[in-house]
Design goal:
Elements (H helix, E strand, L loop, with lengths): L4 E4 L16 H19 L7 E2 L1 H16 L6 E4 L6 E2 L2 E2 L10 H8 L5 E12 L1 E4 L4 E4 L7 H13 L2 H8 L5 E9 L2 E15 L2 E5 L4
Parallel strand pairs: 2-9
Antiparallel strand pairs: 1-3, 4-5, 6-10, 7-8, 9-10, 10-11
């Protein structure tokens, strides 16, 4: 998917600024995967739980940093699967290498060559936004927001998209590359579904779920 999606932030602000919250990227990822596995088991009874490929997950971290570096200051969030220097008036403000296609990002970061990517999904949850010109913080944190709530909310967001829902609901994948990053008040999730690569007698074999 090459389309840039702009999400307007329209939530009501609240007075507290998260001092009582302990948002943690690893915990959010844990709960996201926990609820993803539950959803998939309801759809495909007895399906194995997903396995995370840590090496390939660096490609997802790369993309989350890119998304943070195209973040706008007007109350909107830019979500896209490709990477660019400038597109449709949106400018990249970072210094990392631009890798436009998710499969190319996987090939670049998966130095172990043990993960075959099939599809990418991305979602976000806004905790707060900052106007860099004025330094004003707009807070969207509510008392009920926990690491588990955010993990479930990210999954819910993916389920609301027909194309993303088809990806995460698929039976075939058994390995994922994934990263959850909290950058400048926004929780970014990028996940790539795929299959494990093994080598037998020098031949590359992709291991996926089979019905």
């Amino acid at each position: 998917m090459k389309t840039i999606i702009t999400i307007l932030v329209l939530f009501l602000t609240v007075s507290s600024y998260g001092q009582t919250h302990n948002f943690d990227e690893d915990s959010i990822q844990y709960y996201f995967l926990k609820h993803l596995d539950t959803m998939r088991n309801e759809l495909h009874n007895g399906i194995p739980k997903t396995i995370v490929n840590d090496n390939a997950s660096n490609a997802c971290l790369h993309h989350n940093k890119f998304l943070a570096d195209i973040q706008q200051n007007d109350g909107s969030i830019i979500m896209t699967h490709d990477e660019f220097k400038i597109k449709d008036g949106v400018k990249y403000k970072g210094n990392d290498t631009i890798i436009g296609y998710y499969m190319d990002r996987n090939n670049y970061y998966n130095t172990n060559k043990d993960f075959a990517s099939s599809a990418e999904v991305a979602a976000c949850v806004v905790l707060w936004t900052t106007d860099d010109n004025q330094g004003n913080i707009t807070n969207f944190i509510h008392q009920y927001m926990t690491n588990e709530w955010i993990g479930k909310r990210l999954l819910y967001s993916l389920k609301q998209s027909d194309s993303h829902n088809r990806v995460i609901s698929s039976f075939g994948y058994n390995v994922v590359a994934i990263d959850v990053s909290i950058i400048n008040g926004i929780v970014y999730l990028t996940m790539v579904t795929g299959s494990k690569i093994e080598y037998v007698n020098g031949k590359e074999i992709h291991i996926s779920n089979l019905k």
